[in-house]
Design goal:
With 301 residues, the protein is mainly beta. The protein folds into 2 domains: 62 residues, no CATH class; 222 residues, Jelly Rolls. Helices cover 13% and strands 38% of the residues. The chain contains 4 helices and 20 strands. Strands 5, 7, 12, 13, 14, 16, 17 and 20 form an 8-stranded antiparallel beta sheet that branches. The radius of gyration is 23 Å and the shape is globular.
Length: 301
């Protein structure tokens, strides 16, 4: 029969071994964000992304997330009358390189909380009837999507006073898709588009060749723009079951942070003050609030 001393020794030795195993499994290594996202590592392994300055932790199977704090405290509340956010992103030459959105494909994703149904625009730019990108509410039941000379009306199923995650994607083969809360609700194909006019995209209004006609009436938050068509799995990942996260870092099926052209957090990088909405992507496409839309502390959870 083992003595009391042997039993105590076994317990203490077992505990020491568990601590030792835990210590050997915990790692801190460095690498680029792309390298981190490509690696499958033990759960709990930490990596420091040298190119972004972010600490990321492995959840296994190549799913890396940043443990750094992400706080979403503000949205922008547009009144539907005359306010909007201007940007310097053009449908003709989105990044100054001579490449149009048609050359690369594009995606928009954002959170919207409608105050009242009416004709309104989430975002838009228009140089001519065949040179445009626009997406908005046509009435209490329908979206209007415009790409090139395409103008199509789609049921939206959205109520007032509720946060929804919306995304639009278009690829260079002409395939487009509209998503609501991470799920595809409309798809189609349209290839007739000849971008030619340096018309900048506005948020909350449609940038026409004549004065603005429709303004968004509601709150908007966490808007990202990519120069590629996100996959359906990426859109679902960004929706993240209703919880926004930092789009500048890859997470799970979302692997396109390197293609993010603009990311407007709608007040969180600007302390909910002023008229500038900082572009968190680092590309310098800062937005300017026009006619004093208000900041709100009502945000998607």
């Amino acid at each position: 029969m083992p003595t009391l001393e042997k039993i105590q020794g076994a317990i203490i030795g077992g505990a020491e071994n568990r601590v030792k195993n835990l210590e050997t499994k915990t790692k801190l290594v460095t690498g680029t964000a792309a390298a981190i996202s490509a690696v499958t590592a033990d759960v709990g392994t930490l990596r420091f992304a040298t190119d972004t300055g972010k600490l990321m932790v492995s959840q296994g199977s190549g799913n890396w997330v940043s443990p750094s704090s992400f706080s979403n405290g503000y949205s922008v509340d547009f009144d539907g009358s005359n306010d909007y956010m201007s940007t310097d992103i053009e449908i003709h030459d989105y990044d100054g390189s001579g490449s149009s959105l048609k050359d690369t494909g594009f995606s928009f994703a954002f959170w919207a909380n409608i105050d009242a149904h009416s004709n309104m625009e989430f975002f838009g730019a228009m140089g001519s009837a065949s040179d445009r990108v626009m997406f908005g509410i046509e009435n209490s039941t329908s979206f209007q999507l415009g790409i090139g000379n395409l103008s199509t009306y789609l049921a939206h199923g959205m109520s007032t006073g509720t946060w929804y995650h919306l995304a639009v994607t278009w690829n260079t083969s002409g395939a487009w898709a509209v998503y609501r809360d991470g799920a595809s609700i409309h798809t189609g194909t349209h290839t007739t588009w000849t971008p030619s006019t340096a018309r900048t995209i506005s948020i909350g209004a449609l940038h026409y060749v004549w004065p603005y006609l429709y303004y968004y009436n509601g709150k908007m938050d966490e808007m990202g723009m990519w120069d590629k068509a996100l996959t359906a799995d990426e859109v679902t990942a960004i929706y993240n079951s209703g919880s926004p996260f930092d789009l500048t870092g890859n997470s799970g099926n979302y692997t396109s942070s390197g293609d993010l052209q603009a990311y407007w957090r709608m007040g969180d990088d600007d302390s909910g003050t002023g008229t500038t909405i900082t572009d968190a992507s680092g590309n310098g496409h800062h937005g300017t609030l026009v006619n004093s839309p208000a900041f709100s502390t009502t945000v998607p959870s």
